[in-house]
Automatic annotation (TrEMBL), chain B:
It is an enzyme of class 2 (transferase). Belongs to the class I-like SAM-binding methyltransferase superfamily. MenG/UbiE family. Methyltransferase required for the conversion of demethylmenaquinol (DMKH2) to menaquinol (MKH2) and the conversion of 2-polyprenyl-6-methoxy-1,4-benzoquinol (DDMQH2) to 2-polyprenyl-3-methyl-6-methoxy-1,4-benzoquinol (DMQH2). This is Ubiquinone/menaquinone biosynthesis C-methyltransferase UbiE. InterPro entries: SAM-dependent_MTases_sf, UbiE/COQ5_MeTrFase, UbiE/COQ5_MeTrFase_CS.
Length: 207, 256
């Protein structure tokens, strides 16, 4: 019952999030009737996912056969959830896929493409004016934070390279690397000349 | 099986909570209870069970094995919690029938489901569980959640459910049962007879209906007795799952 309660809470929260994306539910409706089983090997846990036009239904037990079963340890499942390159994770030796993998990939695609319209959700609770004010304020704070971080990054780099002389500056390093590259090419050219001279000396001795 | 006969020609009696009433009056008295509580049925379920009834029903759905295209009968479907989920699971090619003997409950359930946009593959039928008005071998799954204890002739109802099920079809009976833990049993008794009528009085202004609820739960067959009744009726592979220390049990049987 504890697991059922936990799953019910997760399902409720997840479906609220899915409703914030305008395309997620119609895309999930296309998967209606499909059953995806996630069989976690370490720790042993089974989860059934049933997509539908109202979101996802999660169950710890399901009587009918799943269309697609994914067996993997928890670490691989976490990696699958976070990784951008999901096919690579699915092809790893610890992951076992049985049944129609297209169902799983479609579901993963829907979850990966989520673009949450949090302003709409906020406006339902606070109204359009307050949401606009909060949204504008948050956007300006986010912009200020981004600019602040970029400025901090630049100033710190300049201080370490130019004033403290703890690190070599990027331009200085690039100039040194260019000089080293030129030196390397000169040395190689000199080596080639010496080799040619050595060859010509050997031929004159033989004559 | 709880019916008694008093004398050669007297009308058989059955229990209504802790009272004995003539069989012909039980359905009417149960109907009065549900007419009284129908409007606030969902609220009372949440208050009295602390929301647990949602988890018990969730487990019933998980065990139902319902899939797209199936025909499902939800008897005593009340306000349509199970029917709504079944409607989603069977999809447009399936069919769900929400049946209840009580017109008030059926009306609340129908309005609630239509308000939520559940339509197309669902029908509402006022029907007596003992005499189901459906053809033989018609449904893939039949459920009755918190309804069987109110039925006058439980054996007849179980046989009727067997008749309408297809061979291989499943009957799921979700019902209050007997706690398996003695301490829990004592706490549950105190809760049922003190808090439930009080909550009924405060929320629906009807303590008697909730006193009946507590009494009818005690008069309902325990897990093993109900299992034996299902086996006697002709069900195969009958099993039950206790939930919340046996306060509620889910019985499942397959039609051979």
């Amino acid at each position: 019952m504890l697991l059922a309660g936990l799953l019910a809470s997760v399902e409720h929260g997840l479906n609220r999030v899915l409703r914030m994306d305008s395309t997620a539910l119609p895309r999930l409706a296309a998967l209606e009737g499909k059953i995806i089983a996630i069989d976690c090997r370490q720790p042993a846990l089974q989860l059934y996912i049933l997509p539908g036009d109202e979101g996802l239904m999660l169950a710890s037990h399901w009587e009918t056969k799943a269309d697609c079963t994914l067996r993997a340890p928890a670490s691989s499942l976490l990696q699958l959830a976070l990784s951008q390159d999901k096919p690579a994770v699915l092809h790893s030796p610890q992951v076992e896929l049985e049944g129609d993998s297209a169902v799983l990939l479609d579901l993963v695609g829907v979850l990966q493409d989520l673009e949450l319209d949090w302003e709409y959700e906020l406006s339902r609770w606070l109204g359009p004016v307050a949401t606009q004010l909060i949204g504008g304020h948050l956007r300006s704070r986010a912009r200020w934070t981004r600019q602040g971080l970029a400025s901090l990054n630049q100033n710190l780099g300049e201080y370490l390279a130019e004033e403290a002389r703890t690190l070599v500056g990027q331009r200085e390093a690039e100039a040194r690397f260019a000089e080293l590259d030129a030196l390397k090419i000169d040395v190689e050219r000199l080596e080639a000349r010496i080799a040619r001279l050595a060859r010509s000396l050997e031929s004159s001795d033989n004559a | 099986m709880n019916d008694q006969r008093k004398g050669e020609h007297a009308e058989p009696t059955t229990h209504f909570g802790y009272k004995d009433v003539p069989e012909s009056q039980k359905a009417e008295k149960v109907a009065e209870v549900f007419h009284s509580v129908a409007a606030k049925y969902d609220l009372m379920n949440d208050v009295l069970s602390g929301g647990m009834h949602r988890l018990w029903k969730r487990f019933t759905i998980e065990l139902s094995g319902v899939r797209p295209g199936n025909r499902v009968l939800d008897i005593a479907g009340g306000t349509g919690d199970l029917a709504r989920k079944f409607s989603q699971l069977v999809g447009p090619t399936g069919q769900v029938v929400l049946a209840d003997i009580n017109a008030s409950m059926l009306k609340v359930g129908r309005d609630r489901l239509l308000d939520k946009g559940v339509a197309g593959n669902i029908e509402f039928v006022q029907a007596d569980a003992e005499k189901l008005p459906f053809p033989d071998n018609h449904f893939d799954c039949v459920t009755i959640a918190f309804g069987l204890r109110n039925v006058t002739h439980k054996d007849d109802a179980i046989r009727s459910m067997l008749r309408v099920l297809k061979p291989g079809g499943r009957l799921l009976v979700l019902e209050f049962s007997k706690p398996t833990n003695k301490l829990m049993s004592k706490v549950y008794d105190a809760y049922s007879f003190a808090f439930m009528p009080l909550a009924g009085k405060l929320i629906t202004n009807d303590a008697d209906s909730y006193r009946y609820l507590a009494e009818s739960i005690r008069m309902h067959p325990d897990q093993e007795t109900l299992k034996a009744m299902m086996v006697d009726a002709g069900f195969d592979r009958v099993t039950y799952h206790n939930m919340t220390s046996g306060i509620v049990a889910l019985h499942r049987g397959i039609k051979p």
